[in-house]
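pinging the channel bc i need a second pair of eyes. not urgent but kinda urgent?? the chain im working w is below, pasted from the shared doc
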Amino acid sequence: MITIQAKGVSTGVAIGPLYFYKRAQATLRRYQVEDRESEWLRFKAAQAKAIDQLGVLAEKAREEAGDEAAMLFETHQMMCEDMDYEESIENFIKEDGLNAEAAVTDAGAMQAETFAAMEDDYFRARAADVKDISARIVGILSGVVQGGIDSDVPVVLAADDLAPSETVQLDKSKILGFATSGGSGSSHTAILARTMGIPAIIGLGSQLKPEYEGREVIVDGGTGVVVVDADAETKQRLLKKREELLRRQELLNQLKGQPNVTRDGQSIRIYCNIGNPEDVHSVLENDGGGIGLFRSEFLYLNCDDYPTEDYQFEAYKKVLSDMDGKEVVIRTLDIGADKMIEYFQLPKEENPALGNRALRICLNRPEIFRTQLRALYRASAYGKLAIMFPMVTSVWEVKEAKKMCEQVKAELTAEGIPYSEDVEVGIMIETPAAAVISDRLAKVVDFFSVGTNDLTQYTLACDRQNNDLGRFFNPHHPAVLRLLKLVTENAHKNGIWVGICGELGADLELTETFLSIGIDELSVSPRSVLPLRQKVRDTVVGDVKEKLIDALMSDENAL
């Protein structure tokens, strides 16, 4: 038995085989083949498998976002069998003796170049499609696993850490828990685990050895312990703990339908954070009052080219319709920093966390922003929508973004396309600049939502993705909490509401502080709703308010 101690970031106990995430290899193998007919048949087998994969993706997209979204994958299926494309690959293999990987790569590059040179915008856009299907077939030929998991049974997924573009492609049904050598409590792997309600442990470092693959592991996300090949006594103890956690969840389920009201009558809204339309089921299952953060950038991460207006519209429409009148706050595109998308072709930056990201990209590339805003306002006819802009530092940015909203609404009116006139527009408070001038910003928006992950990072000058800075990255730091208090006071003075959509919202050690400050809404992972509701209902704000506010304004160790 091997016991490893690290940091738990999502509670729960999971048991299963350890499986290391399979990441695509960047190096292309190029060589001459002797048996050209066998190589051609190898290509044909990979082509057939690619077509099957694309069919599965098309059905998944249809379920999540409608027929328009499925069409992309169905188009890719047809392109896999395009006669000119296939003939070019056959020539490279049978006439030139190239291996299938190189033949597909060269044929794809040639056809992509042909499309890119065309005058018609539609055909120029097909260049990216050819590159994508070629990469898929080459991946199959090279043994690369699409989505990173090739297992017939659910696994505990191991990795160094996972990028947002990788988490979005994971087959969630195959994951029992996460164990990563790197990462942080606010990494996307941790956020995904909390959304899924499965255990996750980070910071395992070199203790997470490749030779453990396939061996039975038990992960305890509450204590941060990973046990490889547990002995009978340890296994029994941890399985008993898992049963106790499940019983506790059953007790929490009795809180469904109950109000989020303290014992002395103070109410607070408890909403959920999600990353894609699939997550709505978990929101409803856990009795979330609404969606306080829909991370729309995951729609972009899930595409190989800029998602169309119709593709986005179908996704937003589905979420709003499924929420059946409950409020849905959708954050506009927030890429850059740790969320990079290749087709955006953003230049490399020395410090991307402080660079061209989020609203800055949208204002610099208005054609992308306009497409998203049109999709959002069209979807607003199907539910209660609020739009939220990320990474704000100045009033002029908000005014410019709102001006684009008005232009889009005027376009839709002229085109006779319905939309709701009752769409709140708010901003994320995630920079110290926005917090300090929140009195001015409150005059031009309908609400604030505090992104505590980035607010902590920028306030403390501490990279939230760097696990080595763990003890320095302190979301409980009085500087962060004082900014929260300042933002809340300025919001209420100007008659707008304020929420928290960062991971700190689910920190039960701070629930009393948030209630005392006067936060109106907490948006958390779906599985955090009921424990948070219990904490709210057990609190008497009057008993703790004065003490907590005094502590907030005193020294660092008071909270």
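so Residues 36-65 form the longest helix (30 residues). and The radius of gyration is 25 Å. — does that match what u expected or am i reading it wrong
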